[in-house]
Structures are given as structure tokens and as C-alpha cells.
Specification:
By secondary structure, this protein is mainly beta. The radius of gyration is 24 Å and the shape is globular. The strands form seven sheets. The chain has a four-stranded antiparallel sheet with strand order 5-4-3-26, with no helix packed on it. The protein is built from three helices and 26 strands. Mean pLDDT is about 80; it is low at about 1-55, about 65-75 and about 345-363.
Length: about 375
């Protein structure tokens, strides 16, 4: 069972038990007497050093320590700490391959979280800010992973290998929706149960799912022979609705008839989307009142719902929707997502599991 975080008290008990066992165990090495050992903890490993490294007994003692610590610390993970201020995650190729970066909401203090030779991309914050989901090909095939906000404790969501990309969190933090490119479908994974369910087909190169704030619907891109359409699926009934095309749209296969990256507003009344070469647009939930707001792509709403992150030419901007003012945040990045602890309804407890936090939010 994949858990977002281990139980903190259990973790402390395991560590204390290991140290107690170590303190109560005495080793007398024949002829050489008692060797002088120095050992410390390095993440989940015991590092042991001895002044008599070449004796068989020293090696046996080192093996004993390693096995004991592995048994007592099984399941210990790096504690996930919720950011104390607003943070933005994004993808950047500044190092020659896709990496996940984090920065402050004003664009300062950019930091590489993944530092991996694979392509990591499409990062999204969990509702509580305790985790970041993203896709990566670090195991040979692009798949969905989760990590802590500091880049540690990276783990794959599902066991079986498949081509999955562009994750989006359910509002309660229990599930992830994403595109499975093997059959071009929108799938939902239960994080704790590690199960997968296909809920809709996108046809070729569709997808880019986003979960509605109330958790009842998912908006995504469906590909038709001549254009891309924006669809909404009701997760309870399975029914799909196709939003109408914007007015004055060009004929099929003419530049501009392709839509990408739909994103629900925080209140669920508005959908932002990218219209190929024509920029970012807003429309209501019925697909009406289509309005262009700026040239750019990959919209992501601010936690307060009054601003949008977007990118153009691999530069990330923040747009104030009411005033139209834009601010450059990063000169080398795209696909940003925003988290602000100030918007959480309850002060998050770092010891809570994602599933427990979801239950809190429903009360």
C-alpha cells in the first residue's frame, strides 16, 4: 500500500528501538579486543566506520547493524513538510533535460528539485501542498510519480508499467487523473489502493485533464479528425458533454482550430484554455462568453483565483485577470503550478495522511 507519509510516532518508535538494541548489544572481538566503531545515520542507511576495517568480525558487526536498522526502519520516509509560503513548481530544460524546479511566488529562489538525468515534467501540487505529482521517464517509460516538496521521497504511483502523463489531483487528494497514452484514455488512479480505472477516451494525442473543484467532473481535450474539442465528463454518470466551438472559428485544419490545457477556476464557474497561436482564453462552464485575455499557453489558476500563471517562449508570467498586468517570474521554464498555504481551510498537520486530510476537508 502506497502512503503519502508514514505515521510519525511509529517512525520514532522504530528508530528508538533500533538505538536501544544497539546500546544493549555488546561485541567482544577475539584477540583484538573491542574495536572502535563510529556510525551515523545517512537518510535510511547506517554508515559504520572502524579503525580495524579488515577484520572479519568488524564486517560481521557492520552487516548486523545494517540488517537491524533496515528491519526497524522499514517504512520510514522523509517527512513531507508543507511550504509555509506560496510556492510555484514548473518544468525547465536549463540543465539539458527536463527537471522540476520550485520558486517563490515572486519568482525568486529558483531551485532544482529532481536533479535526475531523465525527463521530469508537468508538476502539480497536491491540495494540501504536501506532495508534488509529475511525470517522468526515469524507469524507461513515462509514468506518474509523487515526491515531497523538497524533492525527496520520490515514488511511482502505480506498480505496472504504462505510458502515463500530465497528472491532476482530485480535490480531496486521494486520486490522480492523467492521460494514458497506450490507448489514449483519461484514467484515474487511487493513490492508497494503487488501482487504475479508465473513464474516457481522448482519441489520438488528446488528454490534458483537469479536475473540477467539487470533484464531480473532469475537463479534457478530445481529438476529432479535423480539430480538438473540449469535453467534460461527469464521473458519477459517465456522461460526456462537448463544449461548443468559439464563434468565428476557422474551417477544419486551418491554423487556430486546436485547443489545449483546459483549467478550472477555483470556484468552478470558469475554464481557462490555450487556443493554438491565438493565446489564452476564458469561457464559462457551458462553453459560452469566450474571451481572449493574453497571448500564451498552459494556464494555471492562482489559489485565490484572481491571477493566472502562463508561459510563452519558455518564460513564465503571472497575470492579474482584473487589471491585465503581467509579471515575468522565470526566464527559463513552463508548465507552472501554484500553491499557497494561506488558502487552506484548515492548518495542515504534517503527520496526517493524504486520505485523512481529504476527510477533514469534507467535514
Amino acid at each position: 500500500m502506497l502512503r503519502a507519509d508514514g505515521d510519525k510516532s511509529l517512525q520514532k518508535f522504530r528508530v528508538r528501538s533500533f538505538l536501544w538494541l544497539l546500546a544493549k548489544t555488546s561485541f567482544t572481538l577475539p584477540r583484538n579486543g573491542v574495536a572502535c566503531f563510529t556510525f551515523h545515520l545517512n537518510k535510511n542507511n547506517v554508515v559504520l566506520k572502524s579503525k580495524r576495517r579488515n577484520t572479519m568480525y568488524t564486517k560481521l558487526f557492520a552487516l548486523f547493524c545494517s540488517i537491524s536498522f533496515a528491519l526497524f526502519s522499514s517504512g520510514i520516509s522523509t517527512e513531507a513538510q508543507v511550504p509555509t509560503s506560496a510556492k510555484i513548481v514548473f518544468e525547465s530544460w536549463r540543465d539539458g533535460n527536463g527537471e522540476i524546479y520550485i520558486m517563490n511566488a515572486d519568482g525568486s529562489k529558483e531551485e532544482n528539485l529532481t536533479r535526475h538525468g531523465a525527463r521530469d515534467g508537468a508538476p502539480v501540487w497536491s491540495p494540501t501542498g504536501k506532495h508534488i505529482a509529475f511525470h517522468s521517464d526515469r524507469d524507461g517509460t513515462r509514468d506518474i510519480y509523487i515526491m515531497n516538496p523538497n524533492g525527496r521521497n520520490v515514488r511511482k504511483v502505480l506498480r505496472n508499467l504504462s505510458y502515463r502523463e500530465y497528472p491532476t489531483w482530485s480535490p480531496d487528494g486521494k486520486k490522480l487523473a492523467y492521460t494514458r497514452s497506450e490507448d489514449w484514455s483519461i484514467c484515474i488512479a487511487d493513490i492508497e489502493k494503487r488501482t487504475e480505472e479508465s473513464v474516457a477516451f481522448t482519441d489520438i494525442v488528446g488528454g490534458f485533464a483537469d479536475w473540477s473543484p467539487n470533484g464531480s467532473e473532469i475537463v479534457f481535450i478530445f481529438v476529432k479528425p479535423s480539430d480538438y474539442r473540449i469535453h467534460i465528463i461527469n464521473l458519477k454518470t459517465g456522461e460526456q458533454s462537448e463544449l461548443p466551438l468559439p464563434p468565428n472559428i476557422p474551417p477544419p485544419w486551418v491554423e487556430g482550430r486546436f485547443f489545449y490545457f483546459p483549467a478550472w477556476s477555483r470556484d468552478g464557474d470558469t475554464i481557462a484554455f490555450s487556443w493554438r497561436t491565438k493565446g489564452l482564453h476564458l469561457m464559462n462552464r457551458e462553453g459560452e462568453d469566450v474571451t481572449k485575455i493574453i497571448q500564451g499557453t498552459r494556464p494555471a489558476w492562482s489559489p485565490q483565483g484572481d491571477q493566472l500563471l502562463y508561459d510563452t517562449d519558455q518564460r513564465i508570467f503571472r497575470l492579474d485577470i482584473n487589471s491585465g498586468n503581467k509579471t515575468l517570474l522565470s526566464r527559463d521554464g513552463f508548465g507552472a503550478d501554484w500553491f499557497d498555504p494561506a488558502t487552506l481551510p484548515v492548518e495542515p498537520n504534517a503527520a496526517l495522511l493524504t486520505t485523512q486530510w481529504g476527510k477533514l476537508k469534507q467535514k
